[in-house]
Amino acid sequence: MKRLARRLGFLTAAAMALTQAPVGFVRDEGYYFTAARSYEEWLRFLLQAPLQALGQTERYWSYNFEHPGLTKLLFAASHLVFSTWLKLLPDALAWRLPAFAFAGLLSYWLCILGSRRSRAAGVLAPLLFWCAERTFFHGHLACFDIPICALWAGVGVAWLRASGQPPAPSRQLWLAFVYGVSLAVKHNAWFLPPVLLVHALLLRGEERKRALLTLPWLLLSPLVLFAAWPLLWHDPIRHLGDWIAFHTQHVHYAWWYFGQVLRGPPFPVVYPLVIDALALPLPLVALLAAAGAKLLADFARRRLDAQRLLELGLAGAALLPFLLRTTPIFGGLKHWLAFVALLTPEAAALLVRAAEQAPWPRSRALALGAAAALLPGLWQIVHVHPYGTSAYGELAGGIPGAASLGMQRQYWSNNLTSVLPWLNAHCPPGARVYFHEVNVESYRTYILSGMLRPDLRYASGPAESDYVALQWHREFRDREPETWNAFGTHRPATGLYLDEVPQIVVYARPGLPGAP
Amino acid sequence: MRFRDLKRVPLLALLVLGAASLLFDLTLSARLPSGADWAEAAGALRARAEPGDAVQLWPVWAERARLFVDAMPVLAEEDLANADYVHVQRLWVLSLPRAPHFSAPDGVLRSRGAAPLADAQRFGAIALQPWDLHAPPIAADLTRSPEEHEVDYVARRCLRVAVGSRLTARGGGSALHVRAGVIGERAYDAGRPEIAVQIFADGAPLGTLEVPRTQRDGTGWRRLDLPLPAGPAERDFVFAISSADPGRPFCLQAWTTR
């Protein structure tokens, strides 16, 4: 079964690598690329003068102090090897490569969890997760959302192995390591020990005792965090304090939800569930809902074994912070991807069970069921990729239905890639372009990756620009009238309209190439 | 139904859900306009355009129309019942009636006294219908803004004025209409005091429009409509804008009707 899981993992990583080129650089990636550049400099310094490099960690690692170092270190190492030294890969692909590995790991661990029910469930669990444009899109990014989602599942698998069998230090050390890696990826990992403690307490007899005795091994995990984050090597208490403070005092970004811009707490309690229901393909929503209901019902009837109990706990823990009404909610479903992921093994098992009970041959029923569950998501990917943050499912009425409902149109700024060829073709040399939500880091990466002409200049606002590429965000609607006032025209030159819904709108000053 | 039949239900339900979802996905584009539909609709507007015409998009996100419509202003008012449509005599409602969650605008338009001037014309997935708003004629545009600004998520032809300043204008008419709001997201700044617009006609106070901090979307564009007492054919209006917090960008629109 591990062989099958490994194959699915490799296939997932390969699929991400093959479809990443048109995926724009999201705002967060801009920061992480910049961090990776800085960390790569440090790595090269480390190889040349180790002692001096160790003494100067703060200089290279202070940038993006709010997130632990491991993923960015991997982005940097990948770029150093595949781009700087071997010159095998373009910059962006080299930075993103470790993210694809995490996507592969997620498939691997979901397959492991699913295959404990049946081989078919093992195959279907990762497929259910990835066959939706929102999740598929996030698999491409050099960010932390898919890595922490993968480790959420990975810690679960490691915990089951470490606590579910006669004690073996190798399994317990592996659990400590995997949890340490999750700590070194993203702060979401802070929530895992309470989940594991509650899981242990809900087990019975010998199982409970073994699980409780496994928990202390997690005390080793911070060593991984410390080792993978050189910023902590000097003045660790201060840096840990800064890290924690950043997240406990995180700002709230505006978010459009059913016609109202949510700007701060209290947020609707059902918000994350509604977003999942509207953004994911409808058959997947139905299967996830059935999986959640089945797990809850079996929990109430005390019919959950250790694994299903843990899956319920992990899925719930991924969602719980966003039900509290005070946790920042921006970013769509990316922050609770593990909720979706940890329900897929149960959803896959329900699908298999439904197929087995149908009055047709099992293989035919399973193929039909899998097609019904996966094809709408596959269509969503084909239709919407690489504009993943704009995707909405059938319950919302697709992208136009969601626009009518007053839902967040997109987030970050990656949809800009749709108009870069137009800008490259039409802008005169040295033209000033206002890129709106595209930060200067992403702008530089577009130039570095050859997607944007290097002579095009980054303008600070419509009035200072020759061309404007507006990303449609409810809270930035003032930018379009500003452009009209500055350019003296209401007519865009081009744009990205997904199923007619504006995402990117480009204006050109009258008289310049491309102006209507 | 026998128990054995019930066991088929989950798979059948999933198959129905999957098939219905795919059907929706694959037919969605047929319910939305093509480039040719847009071009035809824009051509029809070009052929029939008259001064005082404007296009209202419905749903308001159908702004791809701006790429094509060049014969008249394109409006994306979100509140059809209360939109002012200043200077608009004939409103062309350009709608996408087959779009998901579409709600027909007819009822709302009729409720404000508007009447269709002709049947809707179809251009593929686009419907185009002219409406007479039966709006009272404008006597004077007191703010005459050359610019537009976003207030409460709609582009408004209002004049950006500094809080603490006074605006003077001269005009006649039997009713005064004043609109005001804070531009952009600063309308939502927490803990900010209200902004007041005191209105005087020929030195006599007429009323005050209060603009508190916006708490809920759709309430940020404040309105005041006043009948003008009998008097001279033209008057000097003064709008005095004041607040304990002068820092926010403020927009004012005022006009009179006969």
How would you portray this structure in words?
The complex is a heterodimer of chains A (516) and B (258). Chain A has 23 helices and seven strands. With 516 residues, chain A is mostly helical. In chain A, a hairpin with a 2-residue loop joins strand 1 and strand 2. In chain A, helix 7 packs parallel to helix 19, helix 11 runs antiparallel to helix 12 and helix 17 crosses helix 18. The longest helix of chain A has 25 residues. The N and C termini of chain A lie far apart (59 Å). Chain B is α+β, with helices and mostly antiparallel strands and 258 residues long. Chain B is built from four helices and 17 strands. In chain B, strands 1, 2, 3, 4, 5 and 6 form a six-stranded mixed sheet that branches. In chain B, strands 7, 10, 12, 15 and 17 form a five-stranded antiparallel sheet that branches. In chain B, strands 11-16-13-14 form a four-stranded antiparallel sheet, with no helix packed on it. The chains are: A mainly alpha (516), B alpha+beta (258). At the A-B interface, helix 16, helix 18, helix 19, helix 20 and helix 23 of A face helix 2 of B.
Index terms:
heterodimer, A: 516 residues, mainly alpha, 2 domains, 5-stranded mixed β-sheet, two-stranded antiparallel sheet, 23 helices, 7 strands, B: 258 residues, alpha+beta, Jelly Rolls, 6-stranded mixed β-sheet, 5-stranded antiparallel β-sheet, globular
Topology:
The complex is a heterodimer of chains A (516) and B (258).
Chain A: H1 2-18, H2 27-48, H3 50-55, H4 57-61, H5 70-85, H6 91-115, H7 119-130, H8 133-138, H9 145-164, H10 169-183, H11 192-202, H12 205-214, H13 222-228, H14 236-248, E1 255-257, E2 260-262, H15 271-279, H16 282-300, H17 306-319, H18 337-357, H19 362-384, H20 398-405, H21 420-426, E3 432-434, H22 440-448, E4 457-459, E5 467-471, H23 479-487, E6 494-498, E7 501-508
Parallel strand pairs in A: 3-4, 3-5
Antiparallel strand pairs in A: 1-2, 5-7, 6-7
Helix pairs in contact in A: 1-6, 2-5, 2-22, 5-6, 6-7, 6-9, 6-18, 7-18, 7-19, 9-10, 9-12, 9-17, 9-18, 10-13, 11-12, 11-17, 16-18, 16-19, 17-18, 18-19
Chain B: H1 3-6, H2 9-27, H3 35-48, E1 53-58, E2 74-75, E3 90-95, H4 106-111, E4 115-116, E5 121-123, E6 126-132, E7 138-141, E8 149-151, E9 154-156, E10 159-161, E11 166-171, E12 175-182, E13 195-201, E14 204-211, E15 222-227, E16 235-242, E17 250-257
Parallel strand pairs in B: 1-2, 1-3
Antiparallel strand pairs in B: 3-6, 4-6, 5-6, 7-17, 8-9, 10-17, 11-16, 12-15, 12-17, 13-14, 13-16
